[in-house]
Amino acid sequence: MKILANDGISKSGILALEKGGFEVITTKVAQEQVANFVNENNVCVVLVRSATKVRQDIIDACPGLKIIGRGGVGMDNIDVEYAKSKGIHVINTPASSSESVAELVFAHLFSGVRFLHDSNKNMPLEGDTNFEGLKKAYANGVELRGKTLGVVGIGRIGQATAKMALGLGMKVIAADMFIPQVDVKVEFFDGQSITTTIVSQSLESLFKEADFITLHVPAQDGYIIGEKELAIMKDGVGIVNCARGGVIDEVALVKALDSGKVLFAGLDVFENEPTPEMTILMNPKISMTPHIGAATGEAQDRIGTELAQQIISLLS
């Protein structure tokens, strides 16, 4: 049986699938050609990340499709319920990339509080001629330790982020309409651990209380953070979004950054992917990455292996 991993899959995933008797195709097929390729090559499993979309048109056009797999958490690029109604299994890997995304959140937080994203651009340009000027420009750093991190969405990735924050000495608060409270276990290298309970509170109270805010929610119909929400936040708040584009009103965010209401933003996802607005790309107060939350070797190995295990279990 053939598997099309259209957005790629780790070597460990390929080896596990081949050992299970599957042929893995990693040729990148253009979105509009996916259905034809699946049918012409008798593909029974399509694996995607965030680039390829598997909508109703592909599902209808590919009667031989047995499984659609998403290497990652969110499945907003797949018509999940429609696929299931056609008898197709839809799988994902919700636990595999949590640590990688959480670490990227802190990469953006550290970058923002110490201006690394801006100093890394300006030091090569002015480091030899304006060293003292740059030193003064980046002199007002902020420590994360002792500050309050507001986690919007305390699922797997939110919990992984909370663990890192707790290890750093931050206070963690959370808002999640589906999870009233959660026990977060922080494990150390020597086998010791501590467990603390985080009780979900209202979004409004989180926005008012948090020094820094990180979003870990699926795609939404509207904004979670817009002009009204920004207005009730603390002056000098930092905001990170490594979840989904479209949950922050980018126009309102830029306005808040320009006014100084928001100290910095860290964005891995954007309203208009893959062509973010120039007002975002050119803003010196935004630390940016191109949707790489799960893009570590370790996460991709876990994702590939987990997908392989699920596919073998379903089709063998």
Quick take:
The chain has 316 residues and is α/β, with parallel strands linked by helices.
What does this structure look like?
It comes from Flavobacterium ranwuense. Belongs to the D-isomer specific 2-hydroxyacid dehydrogenase family. Residues 107-293 form the D-isomer specific 2-hydroxyacid dehydrogenase NAD-binding domain. InterPro entries: D-2-hydroxyacid_DH, D-isomer_2_OHA_DH_cat_dom, D-isomer_DH_NAD-bd, NAD(P)-bd_dom_sf. Keywords: NAD, Oxidoreductase. There is one protein chain. The termini are close together. The chain has helices at residues 11-19, 34-40, 56-61, 80-85, 98-113, 116-126, 131-137, 156-167, 203-209, 227-232, 250-259, 278-281, 297-315, and strands at residues 2-5, 23-25, 43-48, 67-70, 89-92, 148-152, 171-175, 181-187, 193-199, 212-215, 237-241, 262-267, 286-288. By secondary structure, the protein is an alpha/beta fold. The strands form 3 sheets. It has a 6-stranded parallel beta sheet with strand order 7-6-10-11-12-13, sandwiched between helices. It has a 5-stranded parallel beta sheet with strand order 2-1-3-4-5, sandwiched between helices. Strands 8-9 form a two-stranded antiparallel ribbon. Helices cover 38% and strands 20% of the residues. The longest helix has 19 residues, at 297-315. The model has no long low-confidence stretch (mean pLDDT 97). Helix 1 (11-19) runs parallel beside helix 13 and helix 5 crosses helix 8. The protein is globular, with a radius of gyration of 21 Å.
